[in-house]
Amino acid sequence: MSPASEDRPFRVLKFGGTSVTGLPKVEVLAGVVAERARTHRPVVVVSAFSGVTDALGRALEVAALGGDWAPLVEELHGRHERAVDELVAPDDALHAVVTERFEEVGRLLQGVALVREWTPRVRDAVLSTGETLSARILAAALGERGVPARPVPPGAWLPTDGAFGSAEPDLAATAETLSEALPSFDGVPVVPGFIGASREGETTTLGRGGSDLSAAVLGVCLPGDRVEIWTDVDGVLTADPRIVGEAETLARMSFDELLELAHWGAKVVHPAAARLLRARGVPLEIRNTADPNALGTGVDAQSGTGEEHPVRALASRSHATLLHLDAPGVEDPAALTARALEALRQHRIEVIMMTQGSSEAAVCVLVPDSARDAARRALDEAFHLERLTGRVDAVRAEEGCTVVTVVGDGMRRRVGISGRVFGVLGHHGVNVRAIAQGASERNISVVVTGEQGPLAVRAIHQAFFAPRPRAAEVWVAGVGRVGETLLDQLAERAEHQRLRVVGIGRSRVALLAPDGVDLTAWRDAVEAADDPPELLVEAAVSSAHHPRIFVDCTASSEVPRHYRRLLESGVSVVAANKVGFAGPVEDWRGLRESARVGASAYYETTVGAGLPVLRTVADLVDTGDRV
Ligand code: ADP
Ligand code: ASP
Ligand code: MG
Q: For position 611, what pLDDT does the model report?
């Protein structure tokens, strides 16, 4: 490095698993690092190649169960050999490093297989293989692309408290190590993320997703202006893109918002990394290796929002268990809550959220499904005596729940946000199992069943991020005389309608067109349709849109069987079909009950060929007349 380069600020650049995997991504990585090197002194932090840490963890579990772990290790070994060939010119020394490392992994797993269990220390030694090797290979790959770089030995720059599996970085020791190591360091350092070392030099990982934390630690210990995290999305999006396809990238957000999102399940950045950067006032940039020119998301201390966007993003976290602890015989609800939380804390069980408050002592806590049994045991133990005397009921557990959270700094200044959230969920027939609003007023969280989780996320996203005037989505079942006439009428008046026909069904096929059927040519479209007819109802039930209307123009006895489900999912039903309303009066009452906020059942046309007989009679009765 030229002397002038000593004056440049450091810039920590972290590349996640998908961003270091495959030749095209590595070319991008090299380009980004070369570009930063012109103005900064880059320090690169890398994750393992995509999927490697998971695979190492699986091999460990298989070994502990006495299974055949060798093929898993062979596969990983082969993958790394191929990565060397793909990313670096023929390099015997590097191949030898890879082989040696997998031989070591083999020895460790053999030991695990013998004793049928692993210790946290062995697990860290195995899991750290991914980053150890990716750093070696990527440093060589950078050199090959004109960016002189050197791998940092695993853990060397990340002294920790020595707790295997979730080590806490020692910031003071890190700063000291860096000030000793950097002056003589030649080339761009490539640091294996996720890996630290105890005082005794033993490998201690920082916990899953911990490469972000490695980058944050280096970012706050080196004089630099920001940390960049390169990943596989454009930045922080308004929702998890795997659930909401149309989620949009946020140009800016506050650390508070990012932390709230991370806590509630948006795993784009590790929460410990965000917390550390916030505490030290080091801004963060999240960028996409698949689109390096996109600006990404900038995160800093400033509140990320203007008044017009009180809700910035949604997060969701599935696989959670809701535990109910009812204590009809306990007089002090606060003491019950305190003891329950203390019991969970002592067993190091993560409490995602907690709600309390009723005329009787009762607490409801949300924990990860994986902690369900341990949490139950902890509570049963803590209230053992009260259980014996019947003052505390047995703990009830609802597993497989999803908690959906809306997050935004601006929410506290706005009324009506929660009203809107609950309204949307009601319209879609989503049953809310528990609710929490954080003390920061930066989040509103609702617990729903895992099955309804994605629908809840999509529906709330629609409501807050697609606020155009909303045409109703319409599904029409049956294209006989009535259905045909209806569709023609809708076609004639298409421009004036706030209705969009998105599905048409007849006895053997259905036409589904989420963007709307061209009503001027609906007959041809139905002719060419080939979706199975039952998808018509399914599409209406699962759409995240509001409002939705299902029109039954058939005379079938099959379609009315679905009315209740439609209504319970928030879809209004309009029927020209008598069958659904002409049966036992209980069925009719059931239907009326199923119609919730926003969903209604209309059936005027079932009597007198559409003459307004039913409404007239109902009005007469309502106003005291006898018919
Ligand atoms: P890396 O391997 O680069 O560390 P991660 O898989 O840990 O990447 O984190 C990025 C992923 O986080 C994205 O691919 C995306 O699926 C997920 N994610 C969840 N919620 C969000 C969100 N609100 N914005 C962006 N990404 C999100
Ligand atoms: N490779 C580690 C993991 O998958 C660390 C990381 O990628 O951040 O958890
Ligand atoms: Mg990650």
A: 73
